[in-house]
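pinned: reference chain
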Amino acid sequence: MRGIALQSSIEFPTAFEPLLDQLGGRTWLALPHSFDGAQDWGDDGAYDENTETFTHGPGFDFPNEVQLVQEPHIRFNDAATQYGYCARCDLFPKYASAISNDWSALFGTRKPVPDPMMWLRAYYASDHRSAYLQEHADCVIQCVDAAYWAFHSHDENLVTRLAAYWDRRGWPWRTQGLADTPL
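pinned: its structure tokens
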């Protein structure tokens, strides 16, 4: 898996603009803090202040299209263990503006993931997460501490296309191995 990293706090839709239409056709899994709250997505017209709900658009669709992967409550006072999310739709470009710039991690697979909880549990349980992702993911997108973005993929064309875009924008990027990324 080839990877590149960009030291910047640029928002996801801008940093990954040339790939948004290229990342479809994958199953996307994401760690729990990978999405900003829907109220921050910039679609004020779709939010009803009186009912405090979205009436249409991505904020309305998100709960139905992006499944929260969590353990059920065992006892009344127990908090559910959240493993992350699994998209039931093409995540991009529709939800590009929802990707958090602070500690987000998204994993794209070419094959459907029949049991997202088992996939994410195996990721968390792995002593070598980069090796797990190398085997089970096609793409990895990560933002660390609102300071840099990392992109890794088995598809060399995606990496090359993104690097060329970052070059045209004058953004300083570097090659980065998956094992060098805090997962």
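why pinned: The chain has a mean pLDDT of 88. The chain has one domain: 2-180.
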